Structure formats: structure tokens, C-alpha cells
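From the thread on structure requests for the teaching lab: each student submitted one protein with a one-line request. Submission from student K.M.:

"Model RNA-dependent RNA polymerase from Linum tenue, C-alpha cells only."
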Amino acid sequence: MLLQGGYEPNQEPYLSMMLQSYHESLLSELKGRCRVFVPKGRVLIGCLDESGILEYGQVYVQELQCGDQSYFRKVDDKTSVLTGKVVVTKNPCLHPGDIRVLEAVYSEVLEEKGLFDCILFPQKGPRQTTSLFRFYPMPFYAKSQYSVEIPQEIHKFFVDYMVNDTLGAISTAHLVLADREPEKACSSKCLELAQLHSMAVDFAKTGAPAAMPRYLKPREYPDFMERTEKPMYISTGVLGKLYRATLESSARAGVTFVWSKEVAEAAYDLDLEVEGFRDFLPLAEAHKDMYVEKLSMLMNYYDAKHEDEIMTGNLRRKAAYLQRDNRRYGETKDRILVATKSLQMEAKEWFENGCSVKQRQQLASAWYHVTYHPDYFEEGTTTTCLSFPWIVVDTLLGIKSANRRDMLVDQETTTTD
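Reply posted by the TA:
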């Protein structure tokens, strides 16, 4: 909203801080996990078209909350049906055949079923398309009498699983060989590893372990995997090029945002002042102190050193267990964002209860003043709170728009005279 309101990243400190944090996080994701954002991509659950309407090569996708409507047939204000050519892949995708180009179609019958955020595959045609979703029948034939040594069976299953769980080793070997082999993922070794990977995924259900031969184990690792304790080589593939480009970009962008009195003097926006805002400065200071106290508690709890870390959930100094476990880090990030959102909602209640509706512009302007004005800068503060006034961003942008409009009217009047 700040960009739409006319602010430039190099002029507004809070906007600059947040964009730098997101940029740093995206570079970290590219460097560590090669995660590339796909704007028109979705992660969906594969299901079978039980009605039998879809033909071979067709799929049906109805999505919630889709931004770009140019690729969708709009159903209502919340849902749309995807139409046209689509690329569908399994997750994870190891075998070249796991990537397919299919045709997304619209069907009134399927629309009435109310299936959202999943992809329907047809019953018809060869097995290759229907294997994009997995269906395993689980027959159970009850016996009249049977006995199971429950503790012993559990112990045996746990030990067997720990000994024969090779899924991680197979995935790593496939990543290395897909980068190292001339034929990449189409090489015979990668195809064999893809088959072993499928067996390893189903090992907990089938009990059939996937044993990886020694000749498939990598002896050298690409530089983008950062296995410094192992022999390494410079990868010439796309992942290696992306990794090194990310390192160079991180080195150029590795400048931490610093809030200072000089920055405050240059950034303070007079367009956000309204008549009578000074009457609300004591109340604004009290609200700011409460916000800083609660924000500092959140930062200390999650070991965040800067405000942008707690506002975006992108921690720079993650604990060791979070560095190893992406799922747990994702859960921690979600908790941070929920806690931050709750704090902002609480602060908005202070704002709404602290004045009448007619006085909200004055209080919003006072919030901005006690946060951004150089007179309120405290040397040596450990916690900035630039996010504080932007909790009421709608009110502040309304003030700026009205002041700009008045200024243009005054300029036109002066020119006419």
C-alpha cells in the first residue's frame, strides 16, 4: 500500500527495511534450497475424476483466492476455474516422466461438486497420467482368532525403519548425479535412483526396503550443497550458476538497515501532519511505549535482533535445530507472524478507543510524529518501532492524499492569480 500511496523505497525507511528483509530472505532461499517463486504456480492435491467426464490429457482445477484472472474462468468472487495449457509435476519430481503438459478444462458438472484447490485427473487413457495421483487399495481380511505381540512388533518395526530408511540418501544421490551426469536426470543412474526413491517412500507401508547400490553413492558433491567436509567440485549446471549468482548478489545487498537521527531528518514527511495533531502527542507516546514493550518481548522470545525479522518472520540467526528442519522453521515463522498480527490488532484497538472517529487523523498523525520526528530519536535504542504508525496505514495515506490535493489546489490558484 505504501508503494501505491506514492512512497519510494529509497525515501521511506520502513518500506526500505521491509523490502530489504524480504530480498535477503529470498536470496537465502535461493542459496540454501534453490526455491524459485512461481507466480502462476500452485501446490495441489491430486484426485480422481470419479464422474468419468475428463478425457485423457485433461485436468480440472478450481482455485480459491486467485489474483490474475486472465488464465481463469471466474465462477464467483472467491473461486475460479483454470483453463488452457498447464504444466503438472509430482512433488518431489525425480523422474523426467513426472512432468506433463496437460489441458485444463471447465465442466459445470465438476464445478457443482465443490472441489477446491485440488487437481482432478481422468480415469481414461494410459496409466501414465493417472499415476500422477496415488491410490493404494488397503484390503483387510479379518481372522477369527489371531494374536500379535504388540510391543515386540512395534520395536521390530521401529528398528527396521531406522536401519532401512534410505530416502534422504537416495534424494541426495539423485541431486548430485542429476547435476554431474551428462544426461542429467535422464541418465540411467538417475532413473534407477528415481525408482529406488519411489520404493523408499512406500517402505513404511510395504515393508520392502530400497537398498542403494554402492556405485550410485556420490564421491564428490557440487559446491551449491556446501558439503565442506566432503570432496567438492564447481557445478556447471543451472543450480551451480544460480548458487554463485546468489552469493554475489548477497554480497552486494548485504547492508543492514540502520535507523539514525540523520535518516529521520531526511525521511520525515510533512504531508502526514494535520492541524491539531500536537494535542494527541502525549497519548501517542503512551501507545508507542506499550507497543515497543510488547514488540521487544516478542523479539527477545524469538531471538530476533532487528524489527524487520519479527515483522516478516525471517530470522537471520536461526537456532541449530531450525537450520536443519525446514518444516519446524516454517511453523516457527507462522507463529511469529500470528503473534505480530495479534499485536498490531491490539494496537489498532488502542487507536480506535483513544479518540473519536473525527479525531482519528490527528491521532494517526501524532503516531507518525512520535515515531519519525528527529526530536523523538533516542540514541542507543535497541528496538526501532517504524512499523508502529503504519498499523493505521489507511488513515495516514488518506492524510497524505488530502494534503497533496490541497497543495495542488493552492498552486493552481497562485498560477491563476
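TA comment: The chain has a mean pLDDT of 85. Residues 45-130 form one domain.
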